[in-house]
Amino acid sequence: MQRRDDLLGNGYLAVLRTTFISDFGYRIETLARLARRLIAPIASVILWTIIYAASNTTTINGFPRADIFIYFFLVSAIGSVIPNANISNSMQYDIQSGNVATYLIKPFIYPLALIAETGGDALYEFTFITLPIFFVACATVGFNLVLLRVALFPIEILLGFLMTSLIYFMIGCLAAYVINISGISNTLLWVFNVLGGRLIPLTLFPAGIASVLTILPFASIYYLPVATISGLASWSYITNGILYMLGWIAVFFLASLLVWRVSKKKILAAGG
Amino acid sequence: MKNATGEDAIAINDVRKTFTTYEARSSSFLSVLSKRKTEKKALRGVSFSVKKGSITALLGKNGSGKSTLIKLLVGIMAPDSGTVRVLGMDPWKERITLARRMGVVLGAHPTLYNDLPPAQSFEYMRRLYRIPKNEYEKRLRHFIRLLELDDVNRRQVRELSLGERMKCNFIAAVLHLPDLIVLDEPTIGVDLPSTLKLRATALDLQKRYGTTILIATHILEDVKVLAEEVVILDKGKVVFNGSKHDLSVLFGDYKTVELYFAKNAKVNLSRLGTVVDRRDSYVKIEIRSDKARDKMLAELVSSKNVVDYNISTPEIGEVMSKFYSRVGGMRAKKR
């Protein structure tokens, strides 16, 4: 009963809540990040507009030129929440500095406390960066919102957050062995960017590659939520995408348990 | 060694812990590519117990095994062999349950949120430990009054002085009124007024709630003011385990006497003790405590040869210094 209470208890909600409030301390930084997220997609929009113009076409592989603007702005908005590299950065810091002890002296399971902490950051980013960009993009382009697609959008982001948190948690565990994981973490981020649809919408890849990418976990990070809300994805694509995502979460969850089991002693020994 | 009983908050028996580390083979540029595996025995059969409701000081030089022992006590790591019981639990297996009944202050790792006022971190602790709101407010008022923190509670932690931060950190660790508090260097770098307040609050917790306190420190004044029992570690072994009084009796059983002699006074001090300083008519002498010497000293200071004198018993710092030199001496002889 006590264990169940510790797993599901409000301790982790307290972490999430306090992290969310703590992020309010950096309001100017939030505005700067919001500005960066609004400016960053402009380059992609310009580049793809030129490619469409040079091709003298309005649709490439079923991706309409008119959707370029909304696609890259929404991808930029989601990028503030996922992929969640904060978790591996935090672990690297905790292991290097011995700060892991500050979690372990409290009634916490370390990985869950980390997810709760980065969840607080993600919720803050979603509220003050993702949603404002989403509304700005909607108001600018004025695309039709379908209620079910709107409802699925935050759920897919949440699943993407969980999935990338598990991946970065496993990378974070490596810090117990190699100490500095910044290189691995950044490389993975670029894998997500290229294969997850941040730089190139997945449908613009050659058909064979695009169909493989759809099955891989990367597709659900950027492409699936954006394609869902913007109406680019069919209902069957969305259903399959969510099922793939749930499957990958289960795989990464089990893998994380295994990695945690192997590295736990070494990580905890860094505390103090 | 004292045997562990049901009255013990901490019972440690024959605990051993060895770490594997990798050392560079040389100091050359390419040494990072070639490392030698070495083993460091951090704890070599440590046994001691801490009675419920007592304040025990854990002393030892850097590298003596104090930090490793604290990690074992709070469940951060498991021993290679031996048993550790804290509040009747195995810390490694029951860390989370134990954490609810324990408060830990790590001087080097504050737990407060830097970007928030302490009030928010306290509220976080209230939620974490599920302290009823009215009870929480009562406790918080009490600790804030004791530690004189009224004007800092609503300022951001990063704007507070080290002393203020440490006091807030202390409150965060004890708000849930734990049965056992482990303080690891709680007054390190803290100014004297804040240190005094922290000590007073620790004593208040012990008296008011019967809290057991284990304090690992290098600051001997902490030991003098707070501790009843003392455990000293040296190179992973317990080299002293007893009361503070026993430590003074064993290693502080002498007094320092400063004597100011009259002109032309002729006195033989060699039978009385060891002369440690002599200038003109002033002599400083260390005298071991026994009846014969005490009688000789009483006769000397009441004689016409002595115009003034001052007798003092050694401070805990001097006792510890003697202790360490004695331990070092014994080890040198063994070799």
Mind explaining what this structure looks like?
The complex is a heterodimer of chains A (272) and B (335). By secondary structure, chain A is mainly α. Chain A has one domain (2-268). Chain A has 12 helices and 2 strands. Chain A has helices at residues 2-8, 11-23, 27-55, 68-78, 86-97, 101-104, 110-141, 147-178, 182-195, 207-215, 223-230, 235-268, and strands at 59-60, 63-64. Chain A has a two-stranded antiparallel ribbon. In chain A, α2 packs across α7 (110-141) and α8 (147-178) packs parallel to α12 (235-268). The longest helix of chain A is centred in the last third of the chain and has 34 residues, at 235-268. Mean pLDDT of chain A is 87; it is low at 4-8. Chain B has helices spanning 66-74, 95-100, 118-128, 133-146, 162-174, 192-209, 220-226, 244-251, 291-302, 316-334; strands at 8-24, 35-51, 55-60, 81-86, 102-106, 180-184, 212-216, 229-234, 237-243, 254-261, 274-279, 282-288, 306-312. In chain B, α3 (118-128) packs parallel to α5 and α5 runs parallel beside α6 (192-209). The longest helix of chain B is centred in the C-terminal third of the chain and has 19 residues, at 316-334. Chain B is globular. Chain B is of the alpha/beta class. The A-B interface holds A 2-3, 6, 9-11, 13-15, 17-18, 21-23, 25-26, 98-99, 101-102, 104-109, 265, 268-269, 271-272 and B 19, 67, 70-71, 74-78, 95-97, 99-100, 102, 104, 106, 108-111, 113, 115-116, 120-121, 123-124, 127-130, 156, 184.
Topology overview:
The complex is a heterodimer of chains A (272) and B (335).
Chain A: H1 2-8, H2 11-23, H3 27-55, E1 59-60, E2 63-64, H4 68-78, H5 86-97, H6 101-104, H7 110-141, H8 147-178, H9 182-195, H10 207-215, H11 223-230, H12 235-268
Antiparallel strand pairs in A: 1-2
Helix pairs in contact in A: 2-7, 3-4, 3-7, 4-7, 4-11, 5-7, 5-8, 7-8, 8-11, 8-12
Chain B: E1 8-24, E2 35-51, E3 55-60, H1 66-74, E4 81-86, H2 95-100, E5 102-106, H3 118-128, H4 133-146, H5 162-174, E6 180-184, H6 192-209, E7 212-216, H7 220-226, E8 229-234, E9 237-243, H8 244-251, E10 254-261, E11 274-279, E12 282-288, H9 291-302, E13 306-312, H10 316-334
Parallel strand pairs in B: 3-7, 3-8, 5-6, 6-7
Antiparallel strand pairs in B: 1-2, 1-4, 8-9, 10-12, 10-13, 11-12
Helix pairs in contact in B: 3-5, 5-6
